[in-house]
């Protein structure tokens, strides 16, 4: 009896000593076939959300690794293992997270132990099943589509396209239903964020789905970003007054939209590093040279990277851009781009004399026709 009591007391002490604080996390991982001394690297998205950067490392011993720490909210993280191709994606949150990694197929690793990672696993399983249906459909019908295109068989082409669209709609519908059914899941807001960036996004449906998420999810960094994106999207739509902004020009002088307005104004989002933008610039230059005297103004907003001021100036000179130019040198974090919900460049907003947005993302002949129409009204 005494031995049993001693064992129970010892066990309870062990549990007490290893109990995590509610504001702590422990990531316990296993991976077979990796030599001792190799590293597991914990990574996070960089400030621009375009790449990753390391935040911690753990030495793999006997096929095991561990990360400990604290976090204020759930966030998407990555683990890179030495000599393993690809990255393991998971949700870092306080609590115990268990990872069983497979070095030859890192994307099939098993992650669990916490609410959001359990939800992430369910989401990935269901989504992967739909993605497989789409991939199988492509493979099975590739030759049929090629033959239909060669023989101009429009009936077969339309039928295949319709079925392909239905499969893609199934994936979109699943994403929405998942978020509606799991308003407290962190993956729900990440999914909405991703869908909002698609060209064919159903904005109203996604806005409604986001509004129904739990406050704890809306208060995360991605949640706040989506909230801001929705707010900006609503304020920078056709028919709305163009949001005011100001930023430094190449000489460091602050230039505002208000002082740049003409009878017709184009807000042109571009960058020196953007090949499609540079290709389009000669068309914009020709349009400006032809119609500026009749009331066309342009203000360029460049999404330059920090430290690339000279590249920006060189591009302005090389492309002969003689209208006002501004940049905050903050790349995709540019506050003006966020205010106008710019997800890709080149992007254009066409304003009338009152500063109201009357059209978006027109180029070439369409842009010229719209400007001439507005100048003549």
TrEMBL record:
It is found in: Cell envelope. CDD domains: TlpA_like_family (cd02966). Keywords: Cytochrome c-type biogenesis, Disulfide bond, Redox-active center. Coiled coil: none annotated. InterPro entries: AhpC/TSA, DUF4369, Thioredoxin-like_sf, Thioredoxin_CS, Thioredoxin_domain, Thioredoxin_ResA/DsbE_sf. PROSITE patterns: PROKAR_LIPOPROTEIN, THIOREDOXIN_1, THIOREDOXIN_2. One of its GO terms (molecular function) is antioxidant activity. The keyword Iron-sulfur does not apply. GO terms for cellular component: cell envelope. Residues 236-377 form the Thioredoxin domain. GO terms for biological process: cytochrome complex assembly. This is Peroxiredoxin.
């Amino acid at each position: 009896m005494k031995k049993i009591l001693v064992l129970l007391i010892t066990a309870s002490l062990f549990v007490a000593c290893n109990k995590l604080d509610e504001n702590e996390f422990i990531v316990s991982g296993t991976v077979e076939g990796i030599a001792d001394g190799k590293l597991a690297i914990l990574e996070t998205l960089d400030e621009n959300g375009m790449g990753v950067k390391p935040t911690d490392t753990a030495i793999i011993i006997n096929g095991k690794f561990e990360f400990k720490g604290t976090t204020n909210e759930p966030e998407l993280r990555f683990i890179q293992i030495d000599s393993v191709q690809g990255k393991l994606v998971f949700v870092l949150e306080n609590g115990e997270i268990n990872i069983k990694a497979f070095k030859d197929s890192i994307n099939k690793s098993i992650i669990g132990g916490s609410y959001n990672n359990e939800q992430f696993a369910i989401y990935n399983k269901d989504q992967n099943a739909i993605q497989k249906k789409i991939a199988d459909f492509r493979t099975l019908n590739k030759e049929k589509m090629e033959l239909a295109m060669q023989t101009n068989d429009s009936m077969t082409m339309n039928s295949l396209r319709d079925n392909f669209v239905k499969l893609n709609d199934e994936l979109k519908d699943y994403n929405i239903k998942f978020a509606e059914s799991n308003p407290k899941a962190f993956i729900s807001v990440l999914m909405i964020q991703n869908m909002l960036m698609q060209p064919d996004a159903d904005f109203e449906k996604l806005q409604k789905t986001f509004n129904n998420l739990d406050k704890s999810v809306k208060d995360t960094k991605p949640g706040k970003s989506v909230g801001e994106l929705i707010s900006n999207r609503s304020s920078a739509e056709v028919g709305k007054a163009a949001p005011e902004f100001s930023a430094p020009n190449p000489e460091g002088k602050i230039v505002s939209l208000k002082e740049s307005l003409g009878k017709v104004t184009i807000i042109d989002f571009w960058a020196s590093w953007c090949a499609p933008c540079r290709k389009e610039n000669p068309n914009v230059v020709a349009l400006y040279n032809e119609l500026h005297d009749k009331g066309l103004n342009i203000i360029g907003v460049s999404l330059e990277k920090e430290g690339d001021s000279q590249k920006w100036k060189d591009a302005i000179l090389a492309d002969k851009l003689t209208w006002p130019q501004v940049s905050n040198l903050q790349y995709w974090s540019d506050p003006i781009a966020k205010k106008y919900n710019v997800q890709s460049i080149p992007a254009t907003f066409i304003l009338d004399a009152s500063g109201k947005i009357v059209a978006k993302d027109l180029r070439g002949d369409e842009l010229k026709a719209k400007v001439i129409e507005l100048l003549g009204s």
